[in-house]
Structures are given as C-alpha cells and as structure tokens.
Amino acid sequence: MATRFQTLPGFRDFYPDDCAARNHVFETWRKVARRYGFVEYEGPILEPTDLYRRKSGAEIVNQLFCFTDKGERDVSMRPELTPTLARMAAARQRDFRKPLRWFSIGQFFRYEKHQKGRGREFYQFNCDILGEDSVLADAELMALAIDLMCELGFTRDDFRIRVSDRNAWVGFATGKGLDEAGVTTFLQVIDKMERTPEEKVIEQLGALSITLAEVKDFVASGAEASPSIGRILADLAARGLADFVEVDLGIVRGLAYYTGPVFEIFDIGKGMRAVAGGGRYDQLVGLIGGVEMAACGFAMGDMVITDLIRETEGPAAKLNAAVAESGRVDAYVVIADPEKEAEAASVSQRLRGAGLRVIAPLSPAKIAKQFQAAEQSGATYAVVVGSEFPDVTLRHLADRSERVVALESLVAAMG
RNA sequence: GUGGCUGUAGCUCAGUGGCAGAGCCCCGGAUUGUGAUUCCGGUUGUCGCGGGUUCGAUCCCCGUCAGCCACCCCA
C-alpha cells in the first residue's frame, strides 16, 4: 500500500472553497489599503536568520523555520515582514517621497505548536507608514484598520480597537525613578497583568517599588495619560469612527521595539485572540538599515480574522457570497449531437471571447447527464449545440425557459 | 516545552472482548434532445501506528504519531 502523505503539522491545504474564502479576505485587504493610497510591495520569503536576531534577539531562533542552505548560509523562512520592510525602506530611502504608505499581503512561517487562530504557516496583511512623525499617521492606520473590519461586514457591535501609548507608561515609570532596564521589566509586567494573579503582580511591581494602586489609577486616567491618545481620539472622532475606539492602557504589546502609540483589535463576545495589532516603532529602521526613519504600522493575520468572519453572521454571509461568486459560471455548453463537437467548441470560445465563464463537457455524455452537469456547475444558462446549428438553444436553467437564438445574437441574449 | 480530550469508509459519526456499520458524498443504470425528487446497483476500511494481556483486541493496558483545545509564547 502506498504511503499516505499528509500536510506537515500546522500547514494547510486550501481546497477551492477555502481558497475562495482566503481570496475574499485578501481582496478586502487590498481594496481598503488602496482606498488610503497605499501601494503594494513584497520581499523575499527567505531571509538571513541574523535579520531576525538583530530585531528580536537570539531566542527568536526557537520560533523560526531556519536551516543552513547549500551555500552554508544561516537562513530563515520569514516569520514577519517588518525587518524586511525596514531593510528595504532604508536601502532606497532616497528614492521615495515621504511618507511611504506601503502594504503587503504575504505568507509567513513560525515554528510553533498549532492551535486555534495559530499555525506554522499563515498569511498576513502588513500596512505601514514610514517617514512620518505625526501621530496622525497612527490615527490613519487605525482608521484603515477599522475600515477593513467594516468592509468585511463587521459593525460596532462586533469589535473594538483598543488604543494605548507606550510613552505614557515610560513617563510613568521614569517618574517612579526606574532606569532603562527597569522600564523594560515594568512594561512586561503591565503587558501580562491581565492574565497574572494579583498577588504575583503586586510582588513584581513591589520589586520595582511601585504599587498596584498606582498602576490602576494610571490605567483609569485613560486618554488623559497621553496627549497622543487624545489627538488620535479626536482625529478618529472627526472621521466618524469614535464608536469603534476605546482607550485601554493595559495594551502594551510585548515587543520592546514599540516607541509610541500601540493598538490592537479585539472581537466583542467571542474571546478570540487579537485580530490585528500594531504601533509606532521609530527606532527599528535605524536598527536594521542604519537610516533614521519614523515608522508605524500594523498587521492582521488570516487565521483569526477568518475564524471571526465565519462566526459572525453578516461577515459570514458576505464571505459565502464571495465564495459562491468565485465558483459561478455563466454557461454550460451541451453537445446534443456528437457530430457537432467542433461547432460546440467554437461556440464555447465565442462566449469566452466575450468574457463569459463557460464550461463544456470534455468527453461524450448523454444529454440528461450533460444537463445534470450543467445544473451542478451552477451555470446560469445551458447552450445547446445540435441539429439547429448555426442556431443554438439557450436555456435558462433556473426557470427552465428556453428559446432558439442565432449564434450572432447569443452573447446579447445572455446579457 | 507542559497538560487535557480525540483518533472506525472520501466526509459526519454509531458500535461491540467473538464475521466491520449507518447517513451523506462519489460512480454506474432506469426504451438515446432536457436537469430537482425517486428507484436500482456499486467502490472504499491493515478500526492511526507499534507492542502487551487474552483462546481471541477495533474494544482493556503501555508506548508512539497525528488532530483539537488550553498553558508558555505571540514579532
């Protein structure tokens, strides 16, 4: 017996319906990004492992699909796009007017255990503004992210974008006398605070000479804690998007490289992982590419958002409609007389030349079978090619009405 | 890396210490220029894999692999 092959753990097959669903998400990402004047770019799927070490530290290697290539190079399947973007932007920064508005849709790989909303291979939408200091760039990205969700069919009842500001916390921590290392430790405590037992949090904060009450008071101060958040809220309100936003200083995002406002999108009521996340990272382009460049961006993966779409009525209906449309055909050519095979072929090509989607049988079959196949293909029309040629019979499959039309007027008759 | 649950037909799943099951799907057929429904017929399984207990294991035990879920982590 032949060995049965399976996908590797955490990897996925996309059968046509899954692929159509994926493309629906991709097309929405692309459409909304274009609406904001963003242009699409792409980088290599394989990069030197050092690129990721530089950004994230040596431990990152545990989470990478990495190997030594035949030229003895230490390489990795990309786990994210930001380092590549930083490299690209720095390398040719003089070629582009600032700010850059770039987006990308690509496949990424992380050597992790597969679970809901997370695999070893996934697609991610990345959207970044580079070379712009203004906090309005952060707000622009948040607006774009909200629009993405709305375009997918979500409403204000389905999700929130939670906004925070790392600088507010840095200010808080330095105000308490912490040094740089202390601030980093402190931010990690805040990041995990929600899912850490309270005694443990008190203990961890105590080690930094900070009380839980002080932290809670600060979180409660909300937008007042950060002028940037205030401007972002005002801007989003002006865009009519205020209902989608809430300030949540508990959002810190674990990564050390964020330098300003940060945000995440969460569903309401389903308790899934964050759907999207991002923030400002003004030091990273310099770190990677040696060119100082302000930057902010966010990413959205395909797995959580697709789960959420399928579990939410409106977006699910939209997705299903897109899937149905992707598989729809306009006509099925029925070859009623085997002698008319050549004529049927010319009819098919004529229709395709007019931009219609057409299927014709590839091997002889009884008429009944052909109509059954036509029905199952979801075709709107059956075009019967037989003894009446060069006229053909045009049958509307749904209402079963039919009429004989001349070849020349066939396309018009199908309009 | 840690823990819990699961593993039987292509899919969804029943089932029993003693011959392996249903529904769906798929394929073929029901007087050869028209489809739903219906009717008839058909294909498929080393019961995830390896070992142990037993006269006998798909069932009980151990291991292993895979999947799902949670933790860790989450760029």
Description:
With 415 residues, the protein is an alpha+beta fold. It folds into 2 domains: 16-43 and 81-321, BirA Bifunctional Protein, domain 2, CATH 3.30.930.10; 328-414, Anticodon-binding domain (Rossmann fold). The chain is 41% helix and 20% strand. The protein is built from 15 helices and 16 strands. The protein has an 8-stranded mixed sheet. Strands 13-12-14-15-16 form a 5-stranded mixed sheet, sandwiched between helices. A hairpin with a 5-residue loop joins strand 14 and strand 15. Helix 1 (16-35) packs antiparallel against helix 4, helix 4 packs across helix 9 and helix 5 (166-175) crosses helix 6. The protein is elongated, with a radius of gyration of 28 Å. The model has no long low-confidence stretch (mean pLDDT 91). The chain binds one RNA strand of 75 nucleotides through helix 2 and helix 14.
Q: Work out the helix count.
A: 15
- Measured by DSSP, the beta-strand proportion falls in 15-25%
**CATH secondary-structure class of the largest domain:** Alpha Beta
Provide the CATH topology of the largest domain: BirA Bifunctional Protein, domain 2
Q: How much is the average pLDDT?
A: 91
Across the major sheet, the strand order is 1-5-6-11-10-9-7-8
Structure classification: alpha+beta
State the end-to-end distance. 52 Å
Q: From the 3D coordinates, which CATH architecture of the largest domain would you assign?
A: 2-Layer Sandwich
Helical amount? 40-55%
CATH superfamily of the largest domain: Bira Bifunctional Protein, Domain 2
- How can the largest sheet be summarized? 8 strands, mixed
Q: C-alpha Rg, in Å?
A: 28 Å
* Overall tally of structural domains: 2
Number of strands: 16
> Shape, please?
elongated
Task: Give start-end ranges of low-pLDDT stretches.
Answer: none
